[in-house]
Design a protein that fits this description.
The structure is a homohexamer of 247-residue chains. Chain A has 247 residues and is α/β, with parallel strands linked by helices. Chain A contains eight helices and ten strands. Chain A has a four-stranded parallel β-sheet, sandwiched between helices. The first copy, chain A, has a four-stranded parallel β-sheet with strand order 7-6-8-9, with helices on both faces. In chain A, helix 1 packs across helix 8 and helix 4 packs across helix 8. Chains A and C meet through helix 5 of A and loops of C. Strand 3 of chain A pairs antiparallel with strand 10 of chain B.
């Protein structure tokens, strides 16, 4: 299948990190195509930035419509995920949702490790939207300015491991998620230093996309993920975001 | 004060309804300015449509930045409300949030009356985002296609009253919200036919905006509603949405 | 309108603090009348003391019945608020409820600063009664004996600011409430020292009372805030608390 | 031990019903003393009426202070229960709390049968205050005016059994509580007609009072049930309610 | 990989149904081995029956220890799932957990269709254990005696489709789970008759087992899924259940 | 009545501790019979160990069926409690459930003191199963290896008191439960050193068993605690666990 992975921020270096991890885990017959947001910010930490990312991701989803069998929103916090699930007729997965659903099968209480203090409120609301707040052991975070989202792993690797250990020892986490696209692939590298399983959002989302594609769920014509009712619209390019509302 | 009221859907007839109700309730020294989304759909019922509305509202907020003392997002479901609250340095209110916070001071259990079945999932998630799901008695809704969002009140007035009564008698609502901008002003008209208080999103939001403006809260420099950290951005018009991230 | 503000504790100095803040925020056409409990304790920290305050407030509400257009219960914890809302045919507001509903429109997670350790359990239950526990970032409190409820602001001002900062930095509060009538007006004074908005219970409640009065909700004849069913009663002075049950 | 049972409403016929059931279940060495509120209403259905009942119960608790080893608040909804628990140095039990804690050991989901529609909101809030809302299968209620609270069992016995059956079949209750002092003793009579265990508030509370008395818990000097801090008070008869605050 | 699928009830016909569905969905390199409980009941509907099933599943897990790379507990309700996850050093999946985590990526509110009324309480508690009760739209169930668990699909197919439709139309489900091993494979057959995606526990669990195996999480040495601390034990066959505690 | 107390772990020294405390509190006409698990582990700390304990307890319940009027599962965490409640026609109580329901009548927020870090996850899930997580102030625990479960009180008494104090001062507990059968009787000894009531699981459960026996609830024939529907079974000794399913 063709899996379109959309990085909703504008940093190509992060897209590269995501692609590398996605390719490591994908099945042989999964063809991965990457896209980077044409508008937005360098990395997403807040609700407003997520709105920009969601809009950019929807634009890409419209532009490439018909050329993918599944789509992954590749930012933790899942900007646009539920929104796109309403209008696309292929499976749509997100890093947070996929990581939670995967981690939830490894342990009862889930710890999240994040790249900044500011990002934690948005993550917490995202976990809440999925009804999984009761499973959250806590969110721990880096607390220094980020030089470059593409090099967070190198710049802050040791501290991220330390935070992971605190999440286990002080928050009672059974399983950890290293959150945020800038951390794509890190779980693989640090697993040996930790005492509980570590989940990566990108590889979780690739696997879950493959699972959804394999199970071939029908597209809903009822419920809250059926395509929105037809109605007048303006100002939405038919070659882009508008195409998602066409019938 | 200057209150900018943004209708995030594209239907001028709905903007007119909103304006009429806003003017009926506003203080003499509140100057109301209306805006209608330049892109989007005729009325918002789903998460994806709300994303379009949020983006359009943010665009207007950027374009008119500096010309208003408070901003109201005038669609039930509050598209873009929390997002704009992060980037604006004036109070931002929404119809759902304001209606819930107002109704919550009239009764413990709140019933919502909605204009379509499809819209209810989005409303429910919105109530949940504000942590008020425990106060929700239920959401009842019209179940017939809407001819025109501007004439829902005339077309379906009797049925809306009937749904309101069911919310009291069967769901145990202490207070009702007639939800959705297309119902702006209806509460005033039907109050006499009902046995519990009825709250209107537009008039609630005008009053709450005036209250916030009067209390003059400082703009946060910490917490999750401080302005997002400065970082590279592209593709965001500085005359519009990009201006909201400028410093 | 005539707004009757009832201090449910017996300390006139606190009544004075409340009045001062109320007058600073009230509209020109709001006439404020103050009342102090004729029985009860110096300040309310516990459930039992709140029962005494609620009864005293109800007595005043009965004695002055017909002479006010709205009533404010002016103790954080809202003794008697929901009870009076059942029997009065004018809007009734409370400091906790009004502060929560106002603060909730400034940020998602709300921190409360309290004047004693003992008071926190009662506050927490009050927040819970309004279904807002999920919005509570935490309650921080002074931990030294109070010399006099009227001088808490002078005696403990610096510590209250320090607690406020901890609520933001350690509990993740987006917005703060300085709780308790003895702190009336303090928010105004310390706002400049803090990094998030600070809400005052008295000024919130005055604004919310004015809003409710302006919206003119009908008095319920159904739901749990309709007047209690007529039934035999004894021992309730018709010139006071008993008048509230008369028809 | 001496168990003081306080009926917080003013109807002696209900006191008689309570006493009869209490005597049927009490141990031989439990001496039961009854008291009826000197002020208040014929039966309690609302928050305001419960405030009156709580005050009346506290008055009795003060007047007879020193003459009982445990106290039962004998109205479903437990007016004054948590309040009195703060100030008394003997165990205090309530019909709702005791019934829930007892029924909770017979089944997971608890159905409540109530005597009027109006009373259900107050009951629901009471269950919520004890954190047991997640265990509540539902509340079903009579829907006709009550002639006399003392004769509800005779007047509406068949309907109460019918409601009980619906609670099992439609709400999924594992166990039932026949709620309200006017139903004291009914569980005994109708158990044979029902398919799940039926719990009576009075007999539950007698047993729980005996249990608490037997376990001899120390009186707290910390936590939220320690005696309130000493402070000035006025208008509280030292021979009655004021005695509860004396040291 | 070798996937051991354990049917915790004693009915070989159900094992056959499970195997058929598992083989339809499994990857080519997944080798499936089936096992049926040697003790227990014909189908599991209650907590006590689930205890028997959990014990039987653990016995099989011990007897075949070392011969599988992942284990699936193949009864909805997941008897023994969390328990086995503590003691096995390979991934362990369950039908309910896997179905919920999969369905949760297709829609927000999940409806469950069950084979008997009695089974629903156990299912509900299972959903609750995973913290997903807030996502549950409802559980609908057959209400007639089951002739034979192996033929439920043939005997009650039309009614199951009808219940599915009610779950969408009346409970607001976005996605459905046909629950219970006796319904294995049915989703495939009836998808075309329904308006929302339908999830099957067996195929979900096979895919999730493959995902977990592919992600190769480390085995925890901390948290609540580390192997239990070494301690004396008796009466647990070392060739069976006792082997799971050996080190 | 005859009360069968089942220790689901294999350590006779713990059985002795339980018996001593049970006898101290039981009524004169309660005859206590003790049983110790014939298979399982030295003390139960995890979900898997609890499964072993539940099975062993059920086996004893079957073997001695007909010889007891009530049964107590005497391990904190209540292994097998809800399961046995389905199949026995006499009251069944558990140490956690009884302690929570008893403590819940002494204070609003309950602190639990546990004997190991590992055990806390299981306890927390048990509290959650009873819907009482909202009442939990926290769980504090010993953090050193246990020499012998029978001597925890002597070995760690001072530390347990220290943890109890922290639960009051730092977690805000109103009441404490000293959890785990190895701590049976300790509450009695340390009450004088603490500032809030302390509840013991064994004595609570004895009292609650006596209460249930006295109230004589009918055995359910509906709801989720009716006896499981008759169905084929194999491998369950009719002289033991199988007898519980016989009719």
């Amino acid at each position: 299948m063709n899996l379109l992975i959309v990085n909703p921020n504008i940093t190509p270096g992060v897209t590269t990190l995501i692609e590398a991890e996605a390719c490591r885990v994908a099945h042989a017959d999964t063809h991965i195509e990457m896209a980077t947001a044409a508008s937005g910010v360098a990395y997403i930490e807040t609700r407003f930035e997520a709105l920009l990312g969601a809009y950019a991701a929807a634009t890409i989803a419209g532009e490439r419509y018909g050329r993918y069998d599944a789509l992954m929103v590749a930012a933790f916090g899942d900007p646009g995920l539920l929104e796109l699930r309403e209008v696309l007729d292929v499976p749509v997965v997100g890093m947070t949702e996929a990581a939670l659903m995967t981690a939830g099968q490894m342990g009862q209480r889930i710890g999240i490790i994040a790249i900044s203090r500011r990002i934690t409120a948005w993550y917490r609301e995202c976990v809440d939207r999925y009804g999984m707040l009761g499973r959250l052991a806590g969110i721990r975070h880096l607390d220094r300015p980020l030089r470059d989202p593409s090099t967070v792993q190198q710049d802050h690797g040791a501290r991220l491991v330390e935070l992971s250990r605190e999440a286990v020892e002080q928050d009672g986490a059974d399983v950890l998620i290293l959150a945020g696209a800038p951390l794509a692939g890190l779980a693989r590298g640090v697993a040996g230093e930790l005492s509980v399983p570590v989940v990566d959002g990108v590889s979780s989302a690739v696997c879950q996309a493959e699972t959804l594609a394999r199970l071939k769920p029908i597209q809903p014509t009822a419920g809250s993920f059926a395509k929105p009712p037809a109605k007048p619209r303006v100002g939405l390019p038919e070659s882009g975001i508008g195409r998602l509302l066409a019938r």
